[in-house]
Amino acid sequence: MGTKFAACLTNLNEYYQRLLHGSQPLPSGTDMANTVKHLSQTLLSVLKEAREAPLEMIKSQKFDSERMALYPNLDYKQLYNALTQLMDVIPLIHIGLQAFGQALLQCLACLLPFLEHDLIDNMPYLAASSISVLPMELHQDIVNYLCFYILPFTITRKTEDNNENSASQSIAAVIMMIFQYSNNPAHHCQLLECLMTLKPGVVKDILCVIAYGTAPARASAAKLLFYYWPSFNPNLFDRRAVLVKFANDLSPFVCQRDSCPNAGNAEAGKVCYDHRISITFATESPPPLYLCIECANEIHREHPNQMFYDILHPMQQVSMVCENKNCRASDKSAISVCFSTECASYNGNHPIRYCQQCHNIRHNNRRGGDHIYHMALPHISQLDAQTRTYLVQAIVR
Fold first, then answer.
1. What are phi and psi of 309, to 5 degrees?
2. What Pfam family is a match for this entry (predicted)?
């Protein structure tokens, strides 16, 4: 295995050199894709043999040495470097670019569990930056890989010093990259809702984009700030109103099981984080395994000890009033939106907006302490210095 792996890395370096220097014959994207696919399959084969739970261990930096010890001694860092190099010469690929782009994204996601701390931190921006060189046909794939395979395992990682990790700190740059190069508002909504599910302070990143981003990125970020975040002043809006959906063409993420009876049509509703189950039922996809309800039930019957978790679905609408069906407040103005699966379960697994009373009931010192929710920005005097700077610059721009 090690010899073949090294040979593939040599081939990738040769592809890079030939493209960089224009040496004939130039490699085609199809040839490069086949090599990268072989490396992805090697990674999945290695991962399937891991006895522990790599997707659980990757959540914390303190388990990195134990996680890396699960695998044979292959040059994973060199593969990362080779893929990064190839991204630099993508504009020089004239044949088979889409095939190579798909293989590249797949390999990046497969490689994630094998990387050390600093490279894990770099992965979100690396994947996002591919949107600047890959064709428009792959923009949805890029956003999907970010939202389902990369961001959930990178920006939430616990560091040894308990500070915010570098991947999380790079989110403003990730948003800027996607908002600049994709002109599809659905991609912007999908990325932002993913981030709002994972990170409580996303509004700071949005303000950073509005303050310092390119014109297209700033425009989209500003629209989404007012679209998603509870109003600074609810009296400015008709409280009975529902804001018009910013993007109606969100592409549902479908079941990834190889033998799904409704392949390509059944929306994923469950996720399984067991890497062995994932690779068994989706042989070419990186873990975790996203499943429709029918496939999840079928696999659960075969493997009753496995856990299958609900997936948060996109927001259907942005209501100005509380969405708690049992709300008894006199003032039903929405002041928060919660992205936790517990609260979302009361709203068909969609994020739910609460009034002040319902928010206090759901999130207090007895319950909901670990929920990720978003509220309107406080008064500027209550913001930290950096957020205050972003806000001022955003207004000036």
1. -105, 150
2. UNC-79
In this predicted model, what pLDDT tens digit does every residue of 122-164 receive, in sequence order? Answer: 999 999 999 999 999 999 999 999 999 999 999 999 999 999 9
**Assigned token pair, 98:** 């889409």
- Among candidate residues 242, 241, 247, 201, the one with its CA nearest the CA of residue 224: 247
From the centroid of its chain, how far is CA 193?
Answer: 9
**Which residues share a beta bridge with 318?**
243
Q: Which residues pair with 338 in a beta bridge?
A: 352, 373
**What number of CA atoms fall less than 13 Å from residue 203's CA on the CB side?**
23
The predicted model scores a pTM of 0.94
Within a 10 A sphere around the Cβ of 268, how many other Cβ atoms?
A: 22
Separation CA 204–CA 225 (nearest Å): 10
